[in-house]
Design a protein that fits this description.
The protein is built from 23 helices and 15 strands. It is globular, with a radius of gyration of 24 Å. Helix 7 runs antiparallel to helix 8, helix 9 runs antiparallel to helix 10 and helix 16 runs antiparallel to helix 17. It has a three-stranded antiparallel beta sheet, with no helix packed on it. A two-stranded antiparallel sheet has the order 1-7. It has a two-stranded antiparallel ribbon with strand order 2-3.
Length: 615
């Protein structure tokens, strides 16, 4: 049976890239295991689940393609190199084409996600038929875990592509090729699956499996239900009903499905979040400690006292998170002894640091305006180059990074603070301002550690539904900058282009020392800096009027410089700033189906949203 499963999986993998796979389906198994023996045995079923997770770590799957690009660009995060001919830049700047060499791959994220879904389908079907989950709680947990993992992969597929094929049963020779389905039908199936999964899962820390953040738990499943409910009931570009996969341009609108309205989805999703919050099975951690622990590959503990609910389960030698997003290293040895030139492919937009309150501890953890040089010292890279300080090679202390493309850092999928802020958003939408305040306050208090009264005053002053919504829009930016969720928040709020246009205007104001940034620098654009151990102290960002006394180095025109001494563009020059998007972020908020998939789909899978198709 095991070999038969593998052959069917191989067929499913090939079917996504649509190479003929009938020969795989006819292979007979020499295995001595029967289906009943596999799916009634905890260890064997668990191994099948691990095969699902393997698809996450494949070279061109979540590891090197999906996670690297899916959240870029937004009003708070960007790919900070302007190069219109660069296919990586094109992904981030909304000029992605179906032939993009980074993603037009037979083993790219689209194919690997469907590989994971096929493996999940086989496992779900096997457990239902042979595992007796109604009487075996251990097998029941594995059924709940598999349903949740399948929901996560489909959630990520719809975040990237919008409408995609719906495969909720295993592949046979009769259903190899399928067209895209309305995402509304997919959302309803995912929510139904999670309704089934949630009662089967223990809360964090309540079982051996749920004491680890790389295994699924009930609070994560409840949070995923809420995320899907928010997306399903929110705005997005959608083809006209019945026109999915016909080349429809689409319009930005809400779903017309009566089952996917906020009034239907929010009460149930909020009930799940309330139950999870009241379980006290997770809590907020000190913000800096949280991110230091995230770079510690041994830190996978879930349960009371811990915040992280689920991580992408990369092995310790897999994954490219710090490799891609950490504070830039230009040949330093701060990554545990290896000489590393990596990190910093993206970062906060340059105005983000200035938006935080000076007493918000998240500011200097999230936004870093220095990088490591090859003398192992921090140096200033320019006002246009900010890095995500949540991710640092030097924090990888217990199993230090030693070079290569993979660092083993396991990216966070969901944190407890997100549970609280989703609950605040839903409670506010349903008319319960006081309840929304109850969920917003602890997130704000953690951010203002040592100044908690400022958080209390801020929350208490919110006096209307609209004011609370605006506060949540801001708070999610401050809390999750660098975690690549912002783009999807803006899409569902129908604020993507509006907020990105605002970010472009603000970057120009920062460069020109105008508008809200008129008082940021009273030294004519100069800054002064000095080294302080593993960071740089910068003087001149917050309205200082005179040169500081003592041993400070000066950077002339650091903020408003647009060309260097040789006349080359540098700093916040117009093309860089305006290149936050080079295509239409509304029309192309989703990725196209790529040519490799279309050309091998026997004509079943075609593009919408104005992207070209292969007939």
């Amino acid at each position: 049976m095991n070999n038969t499963v593998k052959c069917i999986l191989a067929a499913a993998i090939v079917s996504v890239s649509a190479v003929s796979c009938n020969k795989f389906l006819d292979v007979e198994s020499p295995s001595t295991f029967s289906p009943s023996a596999i799916y009634s045995n905890y260890s064997l079923v668990e191994n099948e689940i691990f095969s699902i997770l393997q698809s996450f770590g494949e070279t061109n799957s979540y590891r090197g393609r999906y996670l690297s690009w899916i959240g870029l660009n937004s009003d708070i995060e960007w790919y900070n190199t302007y190069k219109p001919t660069d296919e990586k830049y094109q992904i981030a700047a909304y000029t992605l084409l179906p032939n993009n060499a980074q993603l037009n791959l037979s083993n790219g994220p689209f194919a690997k996600m469907y590989e994971a879904i096929e493996r999940a389908n086989l496992t779900i079907e096997g457990i239902r038929e042979y595992g007796n989950p109604d009487e075996n709680p251990d097998i029941a947990y594995l059924l709940g875990e598999t349903l949740t993992l399948r929901a996560l992969v489909y959630y990520d597929l719809t975040r990237a592509w919008g409408d995609v094929p719906a495969r909720f049963s295993s592949t046979t020779s009769d259903n190899i090729y399928v067209a895209k389905a309305s995402r509304d039908e997919i959302y309803k199936q995912l929510l139904s699956d999670l309704d089934e999964a949630i009662p089967l899962l223990p809360y964090p820390g309540k079982s051996t499996q749920t004491s680890r953040t790389d295994r699924v738990n009930k609070l994560f499943a409840q949070g995923l239900y809420a995320r899907i409910a928010l997306m399903a009931s929110g705005y997005a570009i959608r083809p006209d009903d019945g026109n999915v996969g016909t080349g429809d341009l689409g319009t930005v609108r809400l779903s017309n499905d009566p089952e996917l309205q906020q009034s239907v989805l929010y009460p149930k999703a909020l009930a799940y979040l309330r139950e999870g919050i009241n379980s006290r099975s997770a809590s907020l951690e000190d913000y800096e400690t949280l991110w230091k622990n995230q770079s510690n590959l041994d830190n996978l503990t879930a349960g009371p006292g811990h915040e992280t609910l689920y991580v992408i389960p990369f092995s310790d030698g897999r994954g490219r998170w710090n490799y891609t997003f950490a504070v830039r290293s230009e040949g330093s040895s701060h990554a545990g002894g290896a000489t590393v030139t990596r990190g910093g492919d993206a970062g906060p937009v340059p105005t983000m640091w200035f938006k935080y309150d000076p007493n918000d501890v998240r500011r200097d953890i999230t936004c870093v305006n220095w990088r490591w040089n090859n003398a192992d010292e921090p140096e200033l890279p320019g006002i246009q180059r900010w890095y995500f300080g949540k991710y640092r090679f030097e924090w990888m202390t217990r199993r230090p990074y030693t070079g290569g493309n993979d660092d083993g850092v396991k990216p966070v999928v969901l944190r407890y603070s997100d549970v609280l802020l989703m609950a605040a958003e839903m409670a506010n939408a349903l008319g319960s301002l006081d309840e929304a305040k109850q969920y917003l306050l602890p997130v704000r208090e953690r951010a203002f550690k040592g100044h908690e009264e400022m958080a209390e005053n801020y929350v208490n002053a919110i006096s209307s539904k609209d004011a609370m919504f605006d506060a949540i829009v801001d708070e999610r930016a401050f809390e999750f900058c660098g975690e690549m969720t912002r783009k999807f928040d803006l899409i569902r709020w129908n604020l993507l282009k509006e907020k990105m246009d605002q970010a472009i205007a603000e970057m120009k104001d920062l460069r020109d020392l105008k508008g809200r940034f008129a008082q940021v620098n009273m030294l004519g654009g100069d800054v002064y800096y000095q080294l302080d151990g593993d960071k740089i102290i910068i003087y001149g960002f917050t309205g200082e009027a005179v040169k500081p006394s003592g041993a400070w180095e000066k950077k002339s025109g650091y903020i408003n410089k647009t060309v260097d001494s040789k006349g080359a563009d540098t700093g916040l020059y117009d093309a860089l700033v305006e290149g936050l998007y080079n295509g239409d972020p509304v029309q192309h908020m989703f990725w196209p189906i790529f040519n490799d998939t279309m050309s091998n789909s026997q004509g079943y899978i075609q593009n919408d949203y104005g992207y070209e198709s292969i007939k």
